[in-house]
Structures are given as C-alpha cells and as structure tokens.
Amino acid sequence: MLRLGEVLLVTLQGDLHDSTAQQLQEDLAETIVRSGATGVIIDVSGVEIVDSFLGRILAEIAGQTGLLAARTVLVGMRPAVAITLVELGLTLPGVHTALSTDVAMEVLRQQAPSSRFGGLGQERL
Amino acid sequence: MPEQAEGTAGAPTREVRDFLRRRGEQIAQRWADEPLFRAVFTVSRDEAVEAGKAVVDALAQVADAARVEDPDAAGFTAVREQLARMGAARSRAGLSTAQVSSELAALRPPVENLLVADLPEDAAVEHVRSCVTTLNVLMGTLRVVVMQTALSEGQALIDRQRLQLLEVATPVIKLWDGIVAVPLIGTLDSARSQVVMETLLESIVEQQARYAILDITGVPTVDSLVAQHLMKTVAAARLMGAECIVSGIRPAIAQTMVHLGLDLGTVVTRASLADALGYVLHQLGVGIVTPGTNGSVAR
Fold this sequence. Notes:
The complex is a heterodimer of chains A (about 120) and B (about 300).
Chain A: E1 2-4, E2 7-13, H1 18-35, E3 39-46, H2 52-67, E4 71-75, H3 79-87, E5 96-98, H4 101-111
Parallel strand pairs in A: 2-3, 3-4, 4-5
Antiparallel strand pairs in A: 1-2
Chain B: H1 2-5, H2 10-31, H3 35-40, H4 45-64, H5 74-92, H6 97-105, H7 108-118, H8 125-168, E1 173-176, E2 179-185, H9 190-207, E3 211-218, H10 224-240, E4 243-247, H11 251-260, E5 268-270, H12 273-284
Parallel strand pairs in B: 2-3, 3-4, 4-5
Antiparallel strand pairs in B: 1-2
C-alpha cells in the first residue's frame, strides 16, 4: 500500500486468497481513516483469476471507502477478468475504472473534493 | 466370425461374400464405367478400377463379418475416407444429395446381374432370391455409409466457415487517439458477441482507448438477447476503464426496443457513428474546426 499525497495506491498481485483479500479490505479502511486519503487506486493488472468472492470484496471496498469520503478507482483490469466479472453478474456499479494509473490520478484530481473537509459529499459514489 | 455366419441367414451371406471375393476385379471393371466413378476419377480408368476394388473388398469384409445391415461395420472404416471424397466431389460438381444417392443406386444392377449369372444354373430359386436380397441389403448399407460421410463432411465445412466468419466479421477500428469503434454487421448470437467482446477489450488495452463505440447500424434486429449482449460488452469495457457508446440505432429498432421494454440503462447511445464520434471528441476536449469560417467550432 503506497501513499501518494492524498491517494492510496494498492497493487494486487497474482493469486489472491480469500483471507488476504479480507485482510486488505480491513487494512484499507483503517489506513483511509488514519491518513485522511481522498482516493484509493487499486491496480488489478496482476490479477489473472477472479471469483465471485473477490468481485464482492472489490465492490465492498468501493462502498466502504465511499462512506469514508474517499473514491475508489480500479486500474488495469485484464479483458478476461472483466468478462468473467460480467458473466458473474458483478458489474461493480459504484466503482470507477481507468485504463492506467495516470488516468486514475487524473480522474481523482478532477472529481474528488479538494480536501476531506470540502464539499458535502455530493461528489461521493 | 465365419462360423457365426453359417447360421440360418448365414448361407446367402457367405455365398455373397465368396462371390464378391471371386468377382471383385470384374465388378470393379464394371463400376469404373458407371457415372459415379467416371466423374470422380477423370484422369485414369485404372485408378477408378482400383477404387472400385477397394470398395468391393470392404463389402466382402462386411459380409464376412455377417453385418450386412450395419453401417458402422469395421469393414467400411477402410474405405470411408475414399467414399467421403467421392461424395464430396459429386456434391461440388453441383449434384443434389438425391442425385448422388441415385448414382450410388446405379452401382447395384451390374453386381446383381453378375451374381445371378455366377450362381450355378441348378440353384434353387429360393436360394438365388435370398442371395440377391442379401446383396441388395449390403448395397443399401453402402449407400447409407456414403450419405453419412457426405453429411458429416458438410457439417465440418459449415463449422469451418462459421469460424472464418467470426474472424472476419469483427474488425476493431481506431478512429482517433484513444477512440476505437466496432461496426457490428449481421445477427449477434452468443458466440459472436463473445468474440466481439474479447476483441474489443483486447484492443482497448492495446490502444489504451478511453472510449469505445459499438456501432449497430448493420445489426438487422435487436431483441432482448442482443440487448443483453450489448449491455455485457459495455459493462466489461467499463470495468477495464473505457466508456462504451452504442451508436447506429435505427428509428425502427429504437421503436421496437421501446415496445419490448428493453432498457439499455446507463449506456450512452447516439443515433449515428458520426454523432458518437462527435460526443467522444467533445468528451476528450477535442474540437473540430472548419477552416475559413474564422475558426468557429463545428461541434
């Protein structure tokens, strides 16, 4: 988990066990609260296999970061993974997506409130 | 196996088998003059005779196994490929299945004549008749085998062509930096939409395209299934970080979709590919300027 200004960058690699994913979900919530981050970028380009569990975890992460006034952007999802998620019916409606980390930073810059104190949260998910 | 063949029905079968073995060469010579063999083996008559001999041998082997009614008999395996080739050659020449079948039927009389002539003159009428019947059954089975192989050949051809169609029918076009388009043509079924989705997603990664346009001008009808496929593709593209625009919905199709209650939900739609491109360029902050009109922005 890397911190770049107000953005947390999480890179997922290879096979993600259910327990690891759940651990990540908890750690992420705590880190957002502690650091006051306004954006989370999850890089899933290293993930080759997804199941319904991981899909649900991703949706939940987006939901909880939204509650903490931060935005989640999924980055670099592979075509096969995207197709699998859609076939599973997990279209992750609340999650923002981007092709690359650059684009994701741009999205966060454009849409995030200037700080966690700004706005009334209407920019949230 | 010959022991089994010597049961009640065995005698005529054995007789036919012996006859086929004895007169194989002669039958093959006669068959070589029949239209079926003459048309397939145009180069040399010897080749036709050889092919005929192979078929006769196969028939004799089947008779030997006493399985004259079984198209799956082991004896046919050896000549199956050759029969398929002959059948395919006739089909290519423009003959219908029925015509090929009647050409095959024409192979029977010469053999029957030979058989009748070959039986001893003092043979019982009953015996002659049962021998002829056995031969007829055998020839009928041969016809079934040829038709079977011809049909499976046709199926293989259709499968191959379907694959080719899938490959050619889904080009992904780069319209601008970061914009790709897929002009869909023809009916969208599950297999095709799968290919469309895969190629589109691959090219989104390849081109780093932030926008993808699905143009359905060439799709004749849109039903709930097609709409579902479109939604899936759009959702998958969105997961990858690209926005998908559906364009080319014709007035009639728009009407049908409303009548059917199909909801494309949050999908951005435009009437034409040009409109979609205009929308995307606007989103990217690119303007189109017509020269000579004081640089006013056209779109």
